[in-house]
Amino acid sequence: MSKTHVYDMIIVGGGPGGYTAAIYAASAGLDTLVLEKLSAGGQMALSEEINNYPGFEEGVDGYTLAEKMQRQAERFGARTVYAEVERMELAAEPKVLETGEGVFHARTVALATGAGPRELGLADEAELVGRGVAYCAACDGMRYRGKTVVVVGGGNSAAGDALALSRIAEKVILVHRRDKLRATKAYDRPLSQAGNIEFRWNSAVVELLHGDKLSGVRLRDVNTGEETELACDGVFISVGRKPATELVKGQLELDKNGYIAADETTKTSLPGVYAVGDVRTKALRQVVTAMADGAAAVHMAEEYLAGGE
Ligand code: NAP
Asked: pLDDT for 176-206, tens place per residue?
C-alpha cells in the first residue's frame, strides 16, 4: 500500500495572496501545493488594469500578473493542482482536503479563497445573469457598448465600475441608497468629468424588469417610498463582496460579517491553519495586502512546523 503523501503546506486558492504564500513556502523549502479551482489570479485576474501595484509604472493587467506569480512559485518547486475543494478536515492531523481530483493531506493549510460579489437578492437575479445582470464591469462591460447601464452601489467598486463603463456604454446611471458615495474622493472629479454618468441618490433597486432579458429596473426612493421605472440594457451590481467561507463554517471562528477571524499574523482559531487575503477580517482588501498575508502565513507556518504554536 502506498504511503499517504503529506505536504508541508497546502494553499487553497491561487490569487495573489495564495501564490505569494506559495512563493514564500516553496522558496523556504516547504513541500507546497496550491489547489485552485479555475486559473491563477482569483479576482485580480479579472482586472484589466492594476495601476497601484508597485513596480509597474504603466500599470499591469491582472491576468499577466497572476501568471507571473504562478510561474515564480513553480520555479521554487510549488505544484498547482486545478481542483475544487469540496470538504476539509482542518482539525485533523494531518489536515485533509477532499477535491474532485482526489484527497490531499497537509501539516498546514493557508486558506486564500477570497471573496465573491454580494447579490442584491432580488427575484430572478440569478436567472438574469448574462442576460442583463452582471457583477463585474471588467468582465462583462464590453457587451454594453453604446447602451444604457445602471451601476448599483456607492463604494470604490461602484465608482470604479461606473467610470470604466462610461468609456464603453452610452449612458451610465449610478444608483445609490444614500445621498453621497462612500468611495474615495479621488473618484469625484473623474466621475463628474465623464459627461455620461448620472446619479440617482437615495434610491434602491427593488425589482428587475425583464422579459427574456433585462429591460429596466424599478427604483424606490428610500425617503418617500415613491417608485419609478428606469429603462436600461444592463445592471452592474457593485454592492460589496462576501467571503468564500462556506467550507470552513463550523470549523473556524468567523467574524460577524462572515470573514475568517484572523489578524495580521493570519493565524485562525485552529493551529496550523492560516487565513490569507480577502477572506480574513481586515480593513483594506487590496492585492498588496493579500500578498503581505501570504508572506505572514508562511512565517507562522514555519514556526508551527518547527514545534511552536
Ligand atoms: P464596499 O466598500 O463595502 O461598498 C459597498 C457599497 O454597496 C456601499 O456603498 C453600500 O451602501 C452598498 N450596498 C451594500 N449592500 C447593498 C444593498 N443590498 N443594496 C444597495 N446597496 C448596497 O464594497 P466595494 O466597493 O466592493 O469595495 C470592497 C473593498 O474593496 C473595499 O475595501 C474597497 O476599498 C476595496 N476596493 C478598492 C478599490 C480601489 O482602491 N480603487 C477598488 C475597488 C474595491 P452603504 O454606503 O449604504 O453601506
From this structure: 999 999 999 999 999 999 999 999 999 999 9
120 lines ligand 1 (CB under 6 A): yes
> Where are the extended beta strands (E) located within the chain?
6-12, 32-36, 79-82, 85-89, 95-99, 102-111, 115-117, 133-134, 148-152, 171-175, 197-200, 203-210, 214-221, 227-231, 234-237, 241-243, 273-275
- How far away, in angstroms, is 196 Cα from ligand 1 center? 22
Query: Global pTM?
Result: 0.80
Which pLDDT does position 44 carry in this prediction?
85
The string of pLDDT tens digits covering residues 263-275 is 999 999 999 999 9
Give yes or no for residue 243 CB within 6 A of ligand 1: no
Residue nearest to atom 7 of ligand 1 (CA): 239
Q: Nearest CA to 148 among 107, 101, 196, 181?
A: 196
Q: Decide: residue 165, CB within 10 A, 0-12 exposed, 13-18 middle, 19+ buried.
A: buried
Cβ(156) to ligand 1 under 6 A? yes
Known catalytic membership, residue 140: yes
Q: What are the tens digits of pLDDT across the range 29-46?
A: 999 999 999 899 888 887
Q: Is the CB of 216 under 6 A from ligand 1?
A: no
